[in-house]
Amino acid sequence: MFAAEWAPPAERHPMHIKVLGSAAGGGFPQWNCNCRNCVSVRAGTPGFRARTQSSLAVSRDGVNWALLNASPDLRQQINDTPALHPNPRAGLRHSPIKAAVLTNGDVDHIIGLINLREAQPFSVYASDRVLATIRANSVFQVLAEPLVPRIEMALDQPFQLEGGGTDLGLTVEAFAVPGKVALYLEDKSSTNFGSREGDTIGLKVTDPLEKKSFFYIPGCAEIDEELAGRLQGASTVFFDGTLFTDNEMIEQGLLNKTGARMGHISMSGPQGSIAAFSKLGVGRLIYVHINNSNPALDDNSPARKAIDGAGWEVGYDGMEIRL
Ligand code: MLT
Ligand code: MN
Ligand code: ZN
User: Fold this and answer.
1) Is 306 exposed, middle or buried (0-12, 13-18, 19+ CB in 10 A)?
2) For the chain, which domains are there?
């Protein structure tokens, strides 16, 4: 009778999340590596899948997208992801990418910005410490302000994600996690590689309309009480899957560094992420930023079975999630 009495059934518009790159720095295979995994994936051995470097893309509407980290493989990732291609009806120059949000200053997370030159407007979001790194490297001036504004993310203060004249309809909250400064910023003369506020952050991305959120934490040294409290009961977490065991790079003769020294928690062990998350009641747990040394990259390995058994998924390039 009256239009006001009728309401269409509430239509769900789930958020889109795409894993653009699921490997850690160096990718999989890594260009100069002859470890068992890299040799196997190059040879096309069943159970091994190539992976590009660490990045996600997220969208509220499936039209406008934000990158979460910008990896050195971004050009390939865009080419492999039709949703990130220029809309053919949008004029000679266009990109669905309206923002890039950075979680640290690592090479695998910032170098892709260089692929986004060519006078295309979008916003770069990062902590003050990561923005300082970008400012100190003059090559990033190819992304000239004001076309590409660099926006400082204050920690623990959710903000509305926007860029290229577009409101993405998502909020983002950045928070400090245990970690360390980027490798190339380490002070070689000291032994102080410890966490400093904002060197490594995690992100909580929320769709305020649908009241859905996920966490993205591709680098993390430890799940301390504060972080555990934040993640308790979360629906979906993408988490640092760099190493399976803390000393695997040393044992394989690849690099004389533990995961702890690199600022990465391991999957296994009493201090590992599998154990830490077992008490947190998270709905969906997905490893990303997986290093080429990680035995879980072999689908048929005992490590992979352990992960599967603990209810984790191993992220892969092209993985899509609707939330
Ligand atoms: C890391 O995740 O620890 C870094 O990406 C390592 C690197 O810079 O190669
Ligand atoms: Mn990395
Ligand atoms: Zn390797």
Assistant:
1) middle
2) 16-314 (3.60.15.10)
